[in-house]
């Protein structure tokens, strides 16, 4: 789109008007030479279907162990309360947010009764921030840790729908009330197909707690974070709430990439989930027909502490290993997700790939494209490498983009474009040189 030309007042109206007209004419001429449109396309009519509001239920452990003071000299509950106050202040207006507690109400020694202590503190919906912050600020560490019961309650709080619902579990210990075992509950919820993801954040750092929280997250496609500071907790919860806006009408399909293209799974357009080990390559196959454009993206979630300075690579290669196109991204530890993408069409093959004839004479020939996902991640000392890091791969096939206007004349390619621009620059230089001399002559006459 050509930008609108603004008139600048110089005190010489005839000169300014003539100069503006000539400049406009010059830019219009350049547009015609280069094949650029003179006007932007008008937006198409119609409206998209209304999007379901993101839904997040925060489950907070208020059991007796949350009194322990081991996070930057503060108690675990005070760190959680201060962090969640900041999170609530930053809540997006469109997000439906709720709070559920576990171990917050029963102070006695009767385990049977204490293991029923999970309560909806604030219903999932549009949040009155003052009321929500006040409710959290008044909590005091009290009882037991019925995580499995709380997860079932959170699923009920969120209800059902087409979009993905998110549970954010903040706890400092493993469930001491099983049954139900929280890992079994997470698998049970995942099997129901209710689009529920559980992200877990651990305030304690023992192996049993870590394993249980990893198990819950893995079963539902969520993430686990080992929390070491108030800022880390605040930032992580904010990121998870922001991510809840990326909802799907269907859940990602689980797949398993291989190390070779020959044995890789064949993917149709859709969203897929997998797990990739540190510094691993995982390969998938996509058949691309003549006239189609492959569009793919991958996101790798850093659900545990990793060494600084890392990257992810997404390659499209031919079946023989010839690279067609690549997308890369890198970071130094500031984000918990790293993503990249690519686009490729059969018209870009340049002889690197050969289309395979199909069985039907009327069907278009297909090219097998291998998608290779690689990472340069490494775990921090003491962090478990298994299971692999969760990744999400999106595959789409669209009609290949048409060639730009003027391509038939060779414009936009090599020397022809260079010569065209040189000639246009010479013409415009002479034109504006004449305008400058004319302005000087008018100034001298006055």
* Fold-level CATH name of the largest domain: Rossmann fold
Number of strands: 17
User: Outline, from the CA principal axes?
Assistant: globular
Calculate the mean pLDDT score and round it.
81
Order of helices and strands: HEEEHEHEHHEHEHEHEEEEEEEEEH
Indicate the radius of gyration in whole angstroms: 30 Å
Helix content: 25-40%
SS content category = alpha/beta
- Architecture of the largest domain in CATH? 3-Layer(aba) Sandwich
Number of helices: 9
Beta-strand content bin: 25-35%
List low-pLDDT spans.
1-48, 403-412
Biggest β-sheet description: 6 strands, mixed
State the end-to-end distance: 40 Å
For this structure, what is the CATH homologous superfamily of the largest domain?
A: von Willebrand factor, type A domain
Report strand order across the widest sheet: 5-4-1-6-7-8
Number of domains: 2
The top level CATH class name of the largest domain: Alpha Beta
InterPro entries: CLCR (IPR051266), VWF_A (IPR002035), vWFA_dom_sf (IPR036465)
Keywords: Membrane, Signal, Transmembrane, Transmembrane helix
Protein name: VWA domain-containing protein
Organism: Streptomyces kaniharaensis
